[in-house]
Amino acid sequence: MSMRLFAAVLVTMAGTAGPALAQMADMPGTMHDHAAPVSSPDEEASPPPIPADHAADAIFDPAIMARARKATIHDAGGMPFSMLLIDQAEWRPGTGKNPQGYAWNVKGWWGGDVNRLAIESEGEGLAGEKAERAEIQVGWLHALDPWFNVRAGVRQDLGWGPHRTHAALTIEGITPYWFDVEGSLFISNKGEVTARLEGSYDQRITQRLILQPRAELDFSAQDMPELRTGAGLGRAELGLRLRYEIAREFAPYVGVNWETRGGRSARLMRASGDDPTALRALAGIRLWF
Amino acid sequence: MPEQSPKARPRLSPLRLDRRTLLAGLGASLGGAFPAWAQGGAHGAMMGAAPSNQAPGVLSGERIELAIGHTPVRINGRMGHAVTANGTMPGPLIRLREGQDVCLSVRNTLGEDTSVHWHGLLVPFQFDGVPGISFPGIAPGQTFDYRFPVRQAGTYWYHSHSGMQEAMGLLGPIVIDPAGPEPQPYDREHVIMLSDWSPVHPHVLLKRLKQMGGYHNFQKQTLAGLLAGRDQPLSERLAWGRMRMDPTDISDVTGSAYTFLINGHDTDANWTGLFTPGERVRLRFINASAMTHFNVRLPGLPMRVIQADGQDVEPVETDEFQIAIAETYDVIVCPAKAEPVAIIAEALDRSGLCRATLAPQAGMVAPLVPLRKRPLLTMRDMGMDMSGMDMGGMGMEGGTLDLSAPSDAPPSGHAHHGAMTMKMRDKSLAAPAIRMGPGVATIAPAPIDRLADRPTGLEQVDHRVLTYADLRALVPSEDRRAPTRHLDLHLTANMERYMWGFDGAKLSENPDPISFRHGERVRVTLINDTMMPHPIHLHGHFFELVNGAGDKAPRKHTVNVLPGGKVRFDLTASALGDWAFHCHVLLHMHTGMFRVVTVRAGENAA
Ligand SMILES: [Cu+2]
C-alpha cells in the first residue's frame, strides 16, 4: 500500500488527523489544493512499465545513440575528480633546547563520489637531518555514509629506526559541530598493533582568517624499544595554527606545536638522550590543487 | 571524424569550413561584440513591427542558421573564452511567429560535440536537442537541421545541452509572436537576458566544489560576526552545527567567481534600453545563468507580470520577483518621466548584482543600489517549520515533532513533551524509493507546500514580491481531467560531497527512466529534501502548478522548489518520446540531478 493511500485512509477515517488539518489551515504560507479533486485512492492507476528501449534509437543509428547516451549518463554524476592537499608544510624555528625542524602533512585522492584512491604522508625532522618520523600511506577510500569514509591500505614507515610496513584501516569523517576526525588501526609486519586518533576544527574568525586547533595521539599495544615507543600512549601532539586564506587553496599560517610522549615512551626517549617534550613555534603554508 | 547516419530525417550534412568567415567572426567579436538586440542604446522592437524591419542580430523566417564556435570575450576587464552562436554572447535573437514552420540549422565549428536545446518549445522529441536522449548530438564539422512547427507564442531561450557549453556562453533568446493579437498590448519591448560569467572553466568551478563544498562562499558566519552580534546567536549556531548544516549555503558559485550580466553587459558596461516617456514597455526577462537565481526589480517602478515561462497569466502587479535559473517572466512597465530607470538583477546570495538602464536617451546611467544583506536559511528551509511554532533560537528543545503522520499527510505539527530529536536524516521518514547512500545527507522531516511563500531572502522586504501563488493562467487549462496517478520525487543531496540526485540516485547510477502513458494525467509532487532551491525543468511539456488557482493553474516548464518545501503539479503526458528532466542549476545537473522521462503509447509500445 502506498504511503499516499495510507495517508488518505488515515485522514478519512479518523478524528486524530482532523485537528491537525485544521491547524494546517492557519499556517501562513500553507497552500491548499483547490484544483480539481484527485481521483479517489482506489482508482489510483498503476505506473506504466519501464520501457527497455530508447525512443531515439528508432530515428538515429542505435550504435551512435548508445555512445552518446553513455557519455551523457557519465557526465551527470560519474566524472572522477581529484585533490592534492598539502595541509601542512611548515618550518619550526628552534628555541633553546629544541633545535629547529620541519614537518609536513599531505593528503590526496582521485576517483568518484564513493570509491577513491587515497594517498597520505606525514612526518617531521630536525633541520639538515633526515626525517625522524616519516610515513606514507596508500589505500582505497570508500564513502560509508554522508559524512564518513573508510580507508584501507598500507603504511610504510621511512623515518628513524627500522622501517616497518603496516596494514592500515582508517575511519575518517566529519562529526556533528563540524569536527574533522580520523581513527586508524595499524598492524605491522612484526605483528605490532598501534592506533592513532586525530581531530581538528576550523574556527573562522573572519571569512579568510581561520584558527585551527588540532590533536594527534599515537597509541601502542606493546613495547617497541627499537622504535623508542612504549605500550600505552606513545606520542601526543597538540597544535594551534592560524591561517590566512589568500585564496581558499593558498594559505600561509603561523602557530605553535606541543609534542610529548607517554610515560614509557618518554622514558625510552630520555634513555637515548632526547627530550620527550617540545614546544615549538611554526610557520608554514597550506595549499591544494 | 565519426560519421553520423540517422536512418531518417534529420540529415546531418558535412560542413565545409570556411576559414575566412571564421577568422572574420573572431576578429569582430574580440573585445566584446554583441548582436544588435543586446547592444547598448538598443531601441528595442516596436510591437507589431515586422521582423524584417528589425535590426540585424535578429533571425527570423523559415530557415535560420546558427554556427557554433569559439569566441574570445572581454568581460570586466578580463579576457575569457566563450562558446557562442554566430560569434556573440548572448547569441542572436530568434524571432518566430506562432503557426509558422521553422528549420533551425546548427553548424558545429568546435573541436567537440555540441547541441542546441530550445528551452520551453514544444517540439518532436528528436529535435529537442539533448545528446544521448533525443539525438546523438552534433559532431565537429557537422550540421544538424531542427525542423518543427511553431505551436506556441511567448518568451523562450536556447542553450547548449553538451558538456558545460551553456556556462561558457552558448545561450540566446527566442521570442514568438502570437498568431492572433497580443492579449496585453504594449508599445515597445526589450529582451533582458540575465547570465553569470566566469573566465574560469566551469569544470574547474565544479572541481573546487567537489574538493570543498563551501569553496566559493565568502559570506559564512564567523566568530567576528558572533562577537559583533551579527547573524545567528550562539545557540542557533550550535544547533545548526550539530546537524552539520550551514545557513549561509545559499549559492554554490558566487560573485567571488562570477560577473553578473544583463544582455552580456556587466554593471559598468551598463546595457541601456531606450523608451519614450509614457510608453508601455514590455521587458522579456530570461534567466540564462548557469548557477545564479536573481532578484529582479526596477526601483521606483511597479511591474505588471503578464507571462511566466512564455505562458500568458492574468496581469499581476509587483515590485520585485525572483527568477530562478531557466525561468522567464514578461512584465510591462510604464516609465512616465524622462529619467533613467535601473534594472537591478541581484544574485540570490547577494554576492553581487548587475545594473542595466532603461533611458529616454542613450548615454544615461541609472543610479546603482547597494547590495542588501545576505539572507540566512531557517528551519523552514529544512522542512522543519512546525505550524508556526516559535523557531527563534531553536526553541525546539524539549519539544518533539510528531512524525508519525505519513509523509504526504500534512504534518500534525503539535509539539509533544519529551526529547526533541533534531534528526535531519531519519531513515524511517524516507520514502522507500530513496536510496539512502552517501548522496543523501538530509531528509526534510515535514516538507510543506511553499508556493505562497516569498522566495529565499525576500521574506522581509517591505514591498510587493511575486510568489507562485499569485500566478493565474489567462486562459483555463485545456486538460481539466483529474489526475489518475500520483508520483512523488525527492530532490536529494549531500552538499559537502557535492552529490545531487532524484530519490538519492545520480543519473550516472543508471536509475530507471520515469515512465508515463501517452495522454495520462499525473499529479507529480517534488519534495525538496535539500537546503537549496532547485529549478526543475521538464523538456517537451508544460505542467500546471497546483497553486490554488484551480482551472487557471499557471503552466510552466520550470518550477523552482524552495528548500524544505514541496511543489505539486499536474502533468498531461502529451508528447511521445524520451525527454530530459533535470535541475537547471548546471552543476547540480552535472553531478546527478537528472533523469530521463519517457512517454509511450500503449503498455508495451516502443
Ligand atoms: Cu539543483
From TrEMBL, chain A:
Keyword annotations for this protein, in alphabetical order, are: Signal
The secretion signal range is: 1-22
Presence of the UniProt keyword Signal in the record: yes
Q: Does the keyword Transferase apply?
A: no
Give the residue ranges for region: Disordered.
Answer: 30-53
What InterPro entries has UniProt attached to this entry? Autotransporte_beta_dom_sf, Cu-R_B_prcur
**One Pfam assignment:** CopB
Q: SUPFAM superfamilies under this entry?
A: Autotransporter
Name of the protein: Copper resistance protein B
List the taxonomic lineage: Bacteria, Pseudomonadati, Pseudomonadota, Alphaproteobacteria, Sphingomonadales
